[in-house]
């Protein structure tokens, strides 16, 4: 991932980037498993990928994307949200226990990787410039409940 503009110095971007790295690692593992014919291992990796991806999408939509919506980035934001919808309809809708779960998954994985690259190299650096400290505080507050253990009081 990119460190050119120091956008990872912002804690919220740092966290999203770390999640991207984990998701990319899972994508790579899944591809290797499928290429070597290890379908059962691939299904387990897909389950892990799904568990990492959905909360990540929610975190972006609930935090960063809300703040970017007010920054004249509507067209770009629409693209990002469309990518999220396709990930939900594709990768997240797959049932790893179902026969044929891996059919066409390579295209879904390619789309996910391109989406991550768009965020890492375009969206995150731009958001570093567009959002002020108050906006980052709102991003943090908007996703704080996602970090709390189940049943814990919201701060």
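^ Assign residues to that structure.
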């Amino acid at each position: 991932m990119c460190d050119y503009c120091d956008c990872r110095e912002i804690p919220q971007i740092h966290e999203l980037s770390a999640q991207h790295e984990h998701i990319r690692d899972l994508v790579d593992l899944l591809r290797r498993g499928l290429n070597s014919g290890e379908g059962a291992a691939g299904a387990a990796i897909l389950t892990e990928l799904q568990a990492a991806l959905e909360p990540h999408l929610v975190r972006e939509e609930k935090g960063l994307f809300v703040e970017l919506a007010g920054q004249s980035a509507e067209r770009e934001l629409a693209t990002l949200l469309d990518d999220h919808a396709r990930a939900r309809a594709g990768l997240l809708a797959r049932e790893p226990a179902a026969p044929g779960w891996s059919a066409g998954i390579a295209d879904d994985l390619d789309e996910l990787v391109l989406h991550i690259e768009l965020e890492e190299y375009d969206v995150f650096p731009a958001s570093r410039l567009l959002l002020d400290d108050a906006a980052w505080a709102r991003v943090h507050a908007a996703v704080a409940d996602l970090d709390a253990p189940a049943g814990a009081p919201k701060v």
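The chain has a mean pLDDT of 88.
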